[in-house]
Amino acid sequence: QRLKAAVHYTVGCLCREVEEDKDVQFSKQSIAAISEITFRQCVLANTLRSVFVLCRHAKRSTINTEDVKLLARRSSSLLKYITQKSDELASSNMEQKEKKKKKSSAAKGERTPGEKEAAVTENEDSNMS
């Protein structure tokens, strides 16, 4: 909270300097908005740097969900949310891959595993009679 207040104060000072130099005025709301954006950008930059460090520590060049989960481990609710969303995305991706497989098999005239099984059963039935 003290850091946020310090950012707000500094942004206010900078805005006053700009007001004097450029003959413009900043409202209190605009100074507050600039302060909030500045603070969030700093937090985001720090978070991204931390995730990058975790990735490098694992000797990888690609940041993955495990790096983000590791960073979020201090907040159980955030970790739970990230894990839930990650699982949802993974299952959605699997479903899409299955649909693409079936679609490409059908386009090539191939039978799906269920259709192959039905055909084998049909052949066995006709051989018995």
From TrEMBL:
<dbReference type="GO" id="GO:0046982">
    <property type="term" value="F:protein heterodimerization activity"/>
</dbReference>
<dbReference type="GO" id="GO:0006281">
    <property type="term" value="P:DNA repair"/>
</dbReference>
<keyword id="KW-0238">DNA-binding</keyword>
<dbReference type="GO" id="GO:0031297">
    <property type="term" value="P:replication fork processing"/>
</dbReference>
<feature type="region of interest" description="Disordered">
    <location>
        <begin position="90"/>
        <end position="129"/>
    </location>
</feature>
<comment type="similarity">
    <text>Belongs to the TAF9 family. CENP-S/MHF1 subfamily.</text>
</comment>
<dbReference type="GO" id="GO:0003682">
    <property type="term" value="F:chromatin binding"/>
</dbReference>
<dbReference type="GO" id="GO:0003677">
    <property type="term" value="F:DNA binding"/>
</dbReference>
<dbReference type="GO" id="GO:0000712">
    <property type="term" value="P:resolution of meiotic recombination intermediates"/>
</dbReference>
<keyword id="KW-0234">DNA repair</keyword>
<keyword id="KW-0227">DNA damage</keyword>
<dbReference type="GO" id="GO:0071821">
    <property type="term" value="C:FANCM-MHF complex"/>
</dbReference>
<protein>
    <recommendedName>
        <fullName>Centromere protein S</fullName>
    </recommendedName>
</protein>
<dbReference type="Pfam" id="PF15630">
    <property type="entry name" value="CENP-S"/>
</dbReference>
<dbReference type="InterPro" id="IPR029003">
    <property type="entry name" value="CENP-S/Mhf1"/>
</dbReference>
<dbReference type="InterPro" id="IPR009072">
    <property type="entry name" value="Histone-fold"/>
</dbReference>
<feature type="compositionally biased region" description="Basic and acidic residues">
    <location>
        <begin position="108"/>
        <end position="119"/>
    </location>
</feature>
